Model the fold of this input.
Amino acid sequence: MSHTTQINAKRLLERLETLAGRGALPGGGVSRMTLTPEDKSGRDLMRTWFEEAGLTVQVDAAGNMFGLTPGRESEPHVLTGSHLDTVATGGPYDGALGVVGGLEAVQSLRESGRDLPSPLGVAVFTNEEGVRFFPDMLGSLVFTGDLALDKALICLDADGIPLGRALADIGYDGSHTPGHVPVKAFMELHIEQGPILDAKGLSIGVVKGVQGIHWTEYTLSGATNHAGTTPMDMRRDALLGAAEAVVFARRLAGEIGNGQRATIGSLKVAPCLSNVVAEKVTLITDLRNADMGLLQQAQTMMEDEIAAICKRHGLESLAKELVLVDAVDFDPRIVGMVQEQADVLGLSSMPMISGAGHDAQIMAGKFPTGMIFVPSKDGVSHNVREHTEPDDLVAGTRVLAGVLAGLAGQ
Ligand code: HGY
Ligand code: MN
Ligand code: MN
Done:
């Protein structure tokens, strides 16, 4: 039985625009780094809209915020949602679409008066991006019990501020125990953040799963020395070692294949002075593959190369695992419902795997879960130029509303 639902497209697009103003960057783009005043501003706005929609707002001790069906808060909810935090060079839709679109779908279904046996809810998960506090998807990991709350609260940012203090500073150190919301199913609407749908001119990505992610921090230590007096063969140059690691990562992706991704996007150099040989470099490897065996192989090859680099250049290395999240397959029944909704609404679509990590990847480990993608213009994301056409934003939200109705009606 397929359900199609009208949504309030004007309200959806206006809310997305208003939210994009919270943490707006001069010249375009959005920066709402997790648990900053900008993140608080986005959360406060969302809380107001949850209340306007007649939902009961609850916040847990990890800062996850929920809009739940009043009077039925303790019943298993069909939940939708995503994150409001962004990377520092973010755009208006990564995470935001899943939260604002999720609210639009839930609010429209409630306004339609349709009798749905299961209650509907919307979730905002803390620190999905993982660029201020590790790991990423922290809020959903705590919600599912995959990360202990007390461990999460002591995660430190680069300035040594614990996550628990940052939560309290913005007033989102909630009282509910993480995992308190019973979940019947979870759906996340998200921009693709890659080039596939846009290049093919398709409207909907029917997401079958998400690739695995492995983040490791390596601190390479050599010896600081004078750039003018130190002969080249007497140096222990940590930045030279880091540079060789960056080049190796690119080669590694080609050797492993199967769509392997290998990125070193973060380098911290000390003392980082033009006339001083670098003493210490902290780099983070971001390796991804849909095949966990290949991902492990890539990780081992990276570790071996770091060891070889240290031997070559007389460096020491300290490794720290930051993130290891398994590849997941979404619930085939839900994947089928997404496909059916796209078809019923006459939208072009294709099945695909997500290259980016999402809270749905974590929720899938515990609850029947699915995702819906809409195109990213030119495949651009984690970039201030991130854009998705209004028609696609509306179409994705309509598909979401139909799937939520179906899940709540079963
Ligand atoms: O890194 C990711 O894939 C996500 O954007 N946190
Ligand atoms: Mn995201
Ligand atoms: Mn992101």
Notes: The chain has a mean pLDDT of 97. Residues 292-313 form the longest helix (22 residues).
